[in-house]
Amino acid sequence: MNILLIEDEAHVSAFIKKGLEEASFHVDVAFDGYIGKVLALQNSYDLFILDVILPQINGLELCRIFRAENLETPILMLTALGSTDDIVAGLSTGADDYLVKPFKFKELLARIDALMRRKENRVINPVFSFAGLEINDFTKEVKRNGHPIKLTPREFFLLKYFIENRGRVKTRTQIAESVWGNSYDTGSNVVDVYVNYLRNKIDKDFSPRLIHTVTGMGYIFKEGEE
Amino acid sequence: MNILLIEDEAHVSAFIKKGLEEASFHVDVAFDGYIGKVLALQNSYDLFILDVILPQINGLELCRIFRAENLETPILMLTALGSTDDIVAGLSTGADDYLVKPFKFKELLARIDALMRRKENRVINPVFSFAGLEINDFTKEVKRNGHPIKLTPREFFLLKYFIENRGRVKTRTQIAESVWGNSYDTGSNVVDVYVNYLRNKIDKDFSPRLIHTVTGMGYIFKEGEE
DNA sequence: ATTGTACAATGAATATTCTCCTGATAGAAG
DNA sequence: CTTCTATCAGGAGAATATTCATTGTACAAT
Lengths: 226, 226
Description:
about 230 residues; 12 strands; 4-stranded antiparallel beta sheet
């Protein structure tokens, strides 16, 4: 999930970025409205978080611009304490939700969660099980046939991505975009390397294989043997 | 004591929140059923207060969901005047008590009191014991394998937080938010330092280790070795 | 009131461990 | 044979652990 955060106060944006990354989102930060606009139009994000008060172009104006550009990406506005007018204005210019500063981080997460899922209409169970593979998003534990497996964060994201897209062929580009973030475009073989790591951990000593190569296309996560 | 209040009417929720905070509870408010659900599943509360009529997911449905997720947290339903059907339905879906709006605040307090006491009697002992670790919330004494351990107040809170959230990975942000009460705070490694203090006192000379690092994510409190 | 001691809380500095990624080569597929 | 994929190893860099110095606070002794 790629999020664009447009917020000029350095300590606030650092706080939000760090927290969201801990919650396994990719976050790009823009420190003023203009840069925010450029980033938003050049890349594809799943969510915008906008401060109302911004240098260059303010948050409300940005909302209007994004909607005028037909971006349907959900928008979450951040507004200072007590400025009810901003809220009304924000929601009327196309924002989907708002949050009053200062806020508790868990509240932000809950709202993001609501926005994303409402849109995608998909609920991911924190505990998932498939062909003897169990993953628990609370404890970040992964097991295959009962054997605990230790994954690095990157490997864990990749596995989650495969699970979310099980049964569908995914190209390296698609995988890189989701798992590494869309600022990532070097012609490297990271995806291959990480698929290899993951295979060694979750497929090597077990059957059936779950990660399959589709030559010339990419990879697919499914139960069937080939 | 952490309470999650799920109530969409702003004046009602503000009233309840204020009153409960004066009675020294910590209160999170969700304005619709979906956000309520997310908050409930992501954090640990001692009590839910649910309105029956809510946007997104209604109170009865929430009850059912919480029970299906094996949350044993007591549930107090708020229901509009005279709707006996709601009451019956609520209690049958897993609510522990109900209150008919409008209500007197002291009545709410009395019911909360009763629920909490019932809960304390059956689940949370002021004396908690886990893998050779004993903590006594009355005397604030902590022992590991019978050896008394002296903790500073902050260390004690941190330990309690870990115990309440045992089995779940908690990020630094979440920990800081709950144990330090910070909003916006990054430029510090207090959490790391205190985890280190705590480890030296409760884990260093004992086995199994209880506080585990999950790189890139945070910490988890559990018995398993790694 | 003032000093002094003890300890708690915190941020910064340093040390250590772990993860990520690149680039090269070997191997498989078409 | 050519293109695509798998695998490996090591350095760069990030994340975490640990130590250190500073500040604040409680409280007893002067």
